[in-house]
């Protein structure tokens, strides 16, 4: 059964189906200028059958090279409509489904990927168990999960959190994943329980900065709970944000950054099915 938080996220993306890919494209890895989609796709390029958990508008799947079979699930019908229109995904198997209840047979895939999705679910153990179920023994699980934030993005999240207590209970949405996901030892324990090997844990730093108006828009798009604020609260948040980030502007560019962790593991071979 879809939870209230999942319904909120689906509606959020149905309204703006291109938003996430536009955001990812505008925030590049500091060291080499790639997007985080490109970084994650490289971990499974050349793999025969790949499934994307929370595939969005298909940008990550489209970046994967050399796969014979591509598949994805998402909660947003509008996301999937955009993905199905991509020429690169003309033959992809794209389905409206929850990541905790995958509509695929056991051992169907050689790789499963997940970009900034695993951390959203309190029942992440169920997501991991489903990833293990649909993977063939020895298959790869690769994910991008959030790390720290700096500069204007950090200011924004602190200010937004200070306003969320004012949101009436009927409008509140609780999108908070299992905190163990964000620590390597916690993630290893969760994955190990599903018979995965210990993870590699590679941080990448993303440049989130730019003109003030662009950074403000990116911040709003990054932090789901902002969608519960009313117009007056959002106006107050914007005013406080502009004041609170005044010292972070250099040559017309507002500083902001995010760290992602690219994690990778394999399902142990020789497991009973």
UniProtKB/TrEMBL annotation:
CDD domains given in the database record: AdoMet_MTases
InterPro entries, per database record: Methyltransf_11, SAM-dependent_MTases_sf
Gene3D superfamilies in UniProt: Vaccinia Virus protein VP39
Methyltransferase listed as a keyword: yes
Keywords, ordered alphabetically: Methyltransferase, Transferase
Superkingdom of source: Bacteria
GO molecular function annotation: S-adenosylmethionine-dependent methyltransferase activity
Record-annotated Methyltransferase type domain positions: 51-142
Gene Ontology biological-process annotations: methylation
Keyword Methyltransferase attributed: yes
Pfam families, per database record: Methyltransf_11 (PF08241)
Enzyme nomenclature, EC number: 2.1.-.-
Name used for this protein in its record: Class I SAM-dependent methyltransferase
